[in-house]
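Page 42, continued from yesterday. The earlier attempt failed because a stray header line got pasted into the input along with the sequence. Redoing it now with the clean sequence only.
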Amino acid sequence: MRIVKFVLLAIVAILLLIVALANAQEVTLRVLPEAMAGFMGISWTITLPMFVVILGAVVVGLLIGFLWEYAREHKHRRAARTERREREVLEREVTQMKREKPGKGNDILALLEDGSTPTRRAS
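This time it went through. Structure tokens are written below.
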């Protein structure tokens, strides 16, 4: 399994290298269109190789997707947390009930614990 993982990672790395070499020309990214930048007096630009822009867009898209899924699954995580707490409380109660002597407590639990019948007190 480890070899398959490394082979797949090597294939992905080779594909990324090919994309980078094929898109090595530089592009200029602007925050605002030129007409609006002149009007507002803001002209932020950056010149990067095209493969950096492509890979950056992929990374940003992945991050947005992960954050969206994390927010969407919040209700499921909260329900699982609540159920886990309830289970722990119930497990503690069961452990405490098992520690009690069968004759003192519930007759049904006494039967389940050791199969013996509890003695009834004469009134």
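Notes: The chain has two domains: 2-52, 75-114.
Reminder to self: strip header lines before submitting.
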